[in-house]
Amino acid sequence: MSSNILLDPLAELTSALTAHAFGLDPASSVVPHASFPLTPEDRASVAAESRAGGVTSARVVGRARIVLLAGEGEAEVTLDRRGYTLESVHAPDGMRYPAQTYESLDALLIATSPAYVAAMSRELTKRFAAAGGGGGEGEGGAGVGAEGGDAEADAERDAERRREDEAAEAAAEGGEAWGDVKSQGLGKSGAGFR
Asked: Which of 25, 48, 60, 138 is least enclosed by beta carbons within 10 angstroms?
């Protein structure tokens, strides 16, 4: 029997929306009236059903309305035992997206929204800089020497930031897919996404 039972998809969706807020419009939200379970009694019922069947109940589903950045549209997403499913996207440009299930909200957003990819790139750059560059690179981090820094290293970091910004802008305009952005050097740290 599985010990990973999704009993409260709304809490999971709320957490996922909060974790990805840097790349979503603030109008994004869960849709409680279209989700199940809602009450403690409902959760107890699906917990018992899931224990008896050995898998998460098929009745368990959370729904969210995600407003994409840069006017890319709105997505209707469900979270159930299969994962995060892109039910539909209402895109102003008429772009059609097939209903597809992803392992994480991050994977769904990367596949759907170039503006999210650009925002994620900016967020990662900001976090690496705040953490001292992830091992010696960064503004004021471990890479800064006793004399206030190495001018050549500073110039190299500035050039890398410009390349990242250009790649992020191109991705936001739909000019590059995430794989192309990674090849520009944004994914070279080996850090995974959740």
From this structure: 48
- Partnered with residue 66 across adjacent β-strands are 75
Residue 62 pairs in a beta bridge with 79
Cβ-based neighbours of 9, under 8 Å, separated by 6 or more: 35, 60, 61, 62, 79, 80
**C-alpha distance across the termini of the chain, in Å:** 25
- Asked if residue 21 has pLDDT above 80, the reply is yes
pTM for this model (two decimals):
0.64
Interatomic CA distance for residues 90 and 180, integer angstroms: 25
**Which is higher by pLDDT, 24 or 4?**
24
**What average pLDDT does range 6-30 have in this prediction?**
93
Q: Which residues pair with 65 in a beta bridge?
A: 29, 76
Q: Which of 194, 24, 19, 16 has the alpha carbon at shortest distance from 116?
A: 24
